[in-house]
Design goal:
There is one protein chain. By secondary structure, this protein is mainly alpha-helical. The protein has one domain: Up-down Bundle (Four Helix Bundle (Hemerythrin (Met), subunit A)). The chain contains 6 helices and 3 strands; from the N terminus they run αααβααββα. A 3-stranded mixed β-sheet has the order 1-2-3. Strand 2 and strand 3 form a beta hairpin. Helix 2 packs antiparallel against helix 6. It is globular.
Amino acid sequence: MTTQQALAALGQVVAGAKTVLEAVPDDRLDWRPHEKSWTMKELAGHLANIPGWTMPTLAMSEFDISPKDGAPPPQPAFETAADIVKALEENAARARVLIEESNDEVLASPWTMLVGGEPRFTLPKGVVFRTFILDHMIHHRAQLGVYLRLAGVPVPQTFGPTADFPEM
């Protein structure tokens, strides 16, 4: 993946995520489909925060998501769906800057994810960006679409028509 491809992919994925996040109603933020599931607010907040992972991906050679001697960084608390959309926009803007300041050599360099100090995988940073950030966002925006459907909220378009918005 080149920096230009990363920027184009980020723009596409963030646009779809924003559309889904904008559909989240404030009065359903605490709704969850199952007792083991995140609330809609937790899932939406996670989706909004994922572009922020671009910094540890591009600026570091490894990252421990569950360090033995501490906790992962705290996640911000959101009060409204608008706060979550704003967080997505801010995280995506910072990600764009980091990618623009990067280069293809950085994207080709290795990055290792650690869990409790133990390596789980090592991949080129561009592949980590594609899978751990962009594909992860696509996964959770689809999951949020299911939440919306189950909560009786119309599901917006991301790639094409939905049952609620069949017109393109």
